[in-house]
Design a protein that fits this description.
eight-stranded parallel beta sheet; alpha/beta; TIM Barrel; 327 residues; binds pyridoxal-5'-phosphate; Lyase, Ornithine Decarboxylase, Chain A, domain 1
């Protein structure tokens, strides 16, 4: 849901039999409203530092609910009596393409650390709750399959302590190639890793959450050139939308390939920064890009924009982000 919640995209995945991982009440309600009659056990709700009222609401919905801290069991145990729960574990090692997308280790706010599992067991018992699922997500943009092997080893080992666990959720983060010629995660290797975990633990159901992997390459951002400028050596190509439509470059220095669609056959001779109209120096879609000389009105294509683009967009500066169309 985080990567892309467009109703038509959700419909496609629904028809393929996938489930939906949500991180807010709004996302859960969006799935329920979009996919009428969906089996609620296909919705996993993983909030982080959400208020009590959200858990009180969620446990009544018949969806899977993940606890991400001990606090809910310590302070609101009555909410979870008689409930089946998932718990997000912090395996201790964050992975991923940037500090801001590493979601494990003490500097990440997510998950119950391994040194708290004894306390987790005690609190769950005291609350009368059953832990039926264990989950971990170490980060996004991970290209080496040993990540999911390590997560699998950690979570399956914990099933010795949490004997009611039936599902182990290895999270997402499968790296998507961002540059031409870059190698993505090797799916055959990934599949073999999952198969080996499953073979060693046949009674467990394995889940994964490959949000970005499923949609990133399916979308592009199209933006018209508005103005050009040269400041000595540094050349700027301005386009009609920027970080309000695609914040990943500003937020994590993410790389998105850029093409001038209007001049696909022209020779690339200029090195330019592609910038948006937002009042921030960080409003850069691409730095030092080799492009053919652009003109006002040309259409630039910014690639791999199907994930965390529209879903992260904003009306900052009261500029509407680019609308999203499914073809
Ligand atoms: C719990 C959880 N699962 C899955 C994902 C999806 O990650 P990605 O879209 O990189 O696969 C995230 C993203 O941060 C997450 O927090």
């Amino acid at each position: 849901m985080k990567a892309n919640w467009h109703p038509q995209i959700l419909q496609v995945f629904h028809e393929q039999g996938l489930g939906f991982e949500c991180v807010s009440r709004g996302e859960v309600e969006h799935v329920l409203a979009t996919l009428k009659g969906i089996d609620r056990k296909r919705i996993l709700y993983t909030p982080n530092f959400a208020p009590r009222a959200e858990y009180a609401w969620a446990v009544e919905q018949g969806i899977w609910v993940t606890l991400d801290n001990l606090h809910p069991l310590q302070k609101w145990p009555e909410l979870f009596t008689g409930r089946d729960l998932f718990v997000r574990i912090d395996t201790g090692h964050g992975r991923g393409h940037h500090d801001k997308v590493r979601t494990a280790g003490v500097h990440s706010k997510f998950g119950v650390p391994l040194f708290e599992v004894e306390e987790l067991e005690r609190l769950a018992k005291a609350a009368g709750a059953k832990i039926v699922g264990l989950h971990a997500h170490t980060g996004s943009g991970v290209f080496t399959v040993d990540n999911w092997q390590t997560v699998g080893d950690t979570l399956t080992a914990l099933t010795q302590r949490f004997r009611d666990v039936r599902t182990v959720d290895l999270g997402g983060g499968l790296g998507v190639p961002e540059r031409l010629g870059q190698q993505g995660v090797l799916l055959t290797e990934f599949g073999a890793t999952l198969a080996a975990i499953k073979a060693a633990h046949p009674k467990l159901t394995l889940w994964i959450e490959p949000g970005r992997y499923l949609v990133a390459e399916a979308g592009v951002l199209l933006a018209q050139v508005t103005q050009l400028k040269g400041k000595g050596e540094v050349h700027y190509v301005g386009v009609a939308t920027g970080m309000n439509s695609l914040i990943r470059p500003a937020l994590y220095g993410a790389h998105h390939e850029i093409l001038n669609l209007t001049r696909l056959d022209d020779v690339a001779t200029e090195v330019v920064n592609v910038v948006g109209p937002i009042c921030e120096s960080g409003d850069l879609l691409g730095v030092d890009r080799l492009l053919p000389p652009s003109e006002e009105g040309d259409v630039l294509l910014i690639a791999t924009a199907g994930a965390y683009s529209r879903s992260m967009s904003s009306r900052y500066n009261l500029r509407d982000p680019a609308p999203e169309f499914v073809i």
